[in-house]
Amino acid sequence: MKNIKKDMINIGKAMLALGLQNTHCGNISVRVDDEIFITKTGSMKAHLKETDIVDPGLYEPKSGLFQASSETGTHKKILEYAGSVVHAHSMSATLLSYITEVIDPLDILGKKHLGLIPVMEFEYPVGSKEMEEEIPKILKNNKGMIIKTHGPITRGANVYEAFFHINISDYTSEILLNLNMLKIPTPSLPGMNYPKIDDYSVPPGKKDTKDLELIKQFKMVATDMFSMKLSPFHTGSISVQDGKEMLFSPFASSPDYFDNDIYRVDINDSYKDFFYTLHQAVYRYSHSQAAVFTHSPQAVVQGFRSIRAGEDRIIPIDAEGGYLYPAIPVVLPDEDIKVIIKKAERYKMVLIAGMGVLAIGHTPTHCIHHNSSMKNISFLKNQLEIMEKTKIIKDISRFLDKRGKDW
Predict the structure, then answer these.
(1) For residue 28, what is the enclosing H or E element?
(2) Which end of the chain is less congested by CB atoms within 10 angstroms, N or C?
(3) What is the span of the domain harbouring residue 70?
(4) 66 exposed, middle or buried (CB, 10 Å; 0-12, 13-18, 19+)?
(5) Each residue of 348-405: pLDDT tens digit?
(6) Is the pTM of this model over 0.85?
(7) Does 200 map to a domain?
(8) Domains: count for the chain
(9) How crowded is residue 89: how many other Cβ atoms within 10 Å of its Cβ?
(10) Integer Cα distance of 160 and 328 in angstroms
């Protein structure tokens, strides 16, 4: 029981760290047999104590019923068929709910892990009987949904999976929201032929290396992925070469109070998952010793914008970005993997449209510099292009690094 509460406490911290809620909103619940554990109403999710988690009972009233979240009734009905429920107030998902009745992800993570995300309007969108009756019906056939003007609610087999689904709903919403503000008609975007990626699973925390310095580097990079929103929780990957093998960490993005798995993988073994294959290809077709892949939503937006405009590169618009990277290549997800690696080797990183950023280099901490720079480059371009469309600024093209066109 203590482990369940500890997991909920850690997820509460992570929710606030990502800005998925304010200090007191949102709720988390977990089912264990016929017991449920749910956060108290008004509890501070980043500072949960075990006494802030109560067990009102799944079928029969137990304790803390009047202290439990105002949406306990909704949670209890979902927990009849799910292991955990998480509700957050993601700003991107909430904003997108004002302009759509269903969210149709364009990115690989949204398509793979959530699919269509229903958006439903309620007369009373906070703790109402109508929500208690309708939301469990919707979530029985969907992993997540958005309560219009209120935010996402997701389910999972455990609290990590439910929180993962919240992250993906926020991530795919941020991408679509930016594309809308950029006035890029999403239905007209070319279809992405995405490769196969693994289903979500909770990392087991296995470390197949005793190199403490390497473990420390993996931890630092995973923490930066999470805290900078370079990749949603438990996405992104890190690897280093070790002879004919690589040390590989999938589902990497996480705060420093979570453990990460590190696997030893033969560079020439065959894997169906694209990210295993991509990292293996780095060491088969380049001289790099490390690689980091992240799913920055801002970078994915720039990738879609480039493909829509028929461009094969992103040219930075800021001084720092232009100094470090006059141009960043953009490729389609079905591009030949050798071509992807060669472009990454030449330009330090490559953006795979709809998927994210592969950076390669000497060490994981060397690589993550490129991923984090790409996030800033993309954020500035997205915002300046929105400002140009809304006539706050006249012409941003004069700020583009001139070397980037021919680089």
Answers:
(1) strand 27-32
(2) N
(3) 2-181
(4) exposed
(5) 999 999 999 999 999 999 999 999 999 999 999 999 999 999 999 999 988 887 787 7
(6) yes
(7) no
(8) 2
(9) 17
(10) 34
Strands 151-156 and 84-87 turn out to be antiparallel
Q: What stretch of H or E contains 29?
A: strand 27-32
Continuous segment of H or E residues that includes residue 214:
helix 212-227
Euclidean distance between CA atoms 344 and 79, whole angstroms: 45
Q: Residue 282's domain is classified under what CATH number? A: 3.40.225.10
The structure tokens listed for 215 are 């473990």
Task: Decide if 18 contacts 167 (C-beta within 8 A).
Answer: yes
How far CA 280 is from CA of 220, 231, 266, in Å, comes to: 22, 20, 8
Q: Which residue, 181, 198, 230, sits at the end of a domain? A: 181
Do 401 and 356 lie in one domain? The reply is yes
Shared domain for 173 and 220, answered yes or no, is no
Q: Are residues 162 and 233 in the same domain?
A: no
Q: For residues 356 and 236, what is the distance between their CA atoms, to the nearest angstrom?
A: 9
Burial code of 157-185, b = ≥16 C-beta within 10 A, e = fewer? ebbbbbbbbbbbbbbbbbbbbbbebbebe
Q: How far is it, in rounded angstroms, from Cα 344 to Cα 321? A: 16
Helix axes 159-181, 297-308, angle to 10 degrees: 40
Tell me if 189 is assigned to some domain.
no
Handedness of CA 324, 332, 268, 346 (dihedral sign): negative
Which helix (H) or strand (E) segment holds residue 275: the answer is helix 274-285
Among 91-100, 120-129, 142-151, the range scoring the smallest mean pLDDT is 120-129
Verify that 176 and 236 share a domain, yes or no.
Answer: no
- At residue 242, φ and ψ (nearest 5 deg) are -140, 85
Give the domain-ending residue among 181, 196, 224.
Answer: 181
Condensed to tens digits (0 to 9), the pLDDT of residues 191-246 reads 789 999 999 988 777 889 999 999 999 999 999 999 999 999 999 999 999 999 99
Same domain? For 223 and 156 the reply is no
Same domain for 25 and 72, yes or no, is yes
